[in-house]
Amino acid sequence: MESMNDQQARAYVAQWLSTHPDRLHNRRHDPMQLRNWEDAAVLRLRNGIAEDAEFILRRFATKTETHSME
């Protein structure tokens, strides 16, 4: 069970965002907020298990969206 390196994680986050255009609406309108989210997502992927990447990003996006609604 290996982790992703920085380049792999960034590529995965970019792909995930492009295949999930319905997620993170509030962050997508502000480039700085989106960049911060991407950086945090990369960190989570690098610290997690590569096979769990989809779950990690889905959960992180859900937490972010829930938090921004409060």
How would you summarize what this structure contains?
By secondary structure, this protein is mainly α. The protein has four helices and no strands.
Q: Describe the biggest sheet? A: none
Secondary-structure-derived class: mainly alpha
Helix content: over 70%
Q: Got a strand count?
A: 0
Q: List SSEs in N-to-C order.
A: HHHH
Q: Write down the domain tally.
A: 1
Distance between the termini: 36 Å
Average predicted local confidence, pLDDT: 91
Nearest-angstrom radius of gyration? 12 Å
- Count of DSSP-assigned helices: 4
What low-confidence regions span 5 or more consecutive residues with pLDDT below 50?
Answer: none
Report strand %.
Answer: under 5%
Instruction: Give the overall shape, derived from the CA principal axes.
Output: globular
SSE inventory with pairings:
Layout: H1 6-19, H2 25-28, H3 31-47, H4 53-69
Helix pairs in contact: 1-3
Could you walk me through the main structural features you see in this protein, from its secondary elements to its overall organization?
The chain has helices at 6-19, 25-28, 31-47, 53-69. The chain contains four helices and no strands. Helix 1 (6-19) packs across helix 3 (31-47). The chain is an all-alpha fold and 70 residues long. The protein has one domain (6-62).
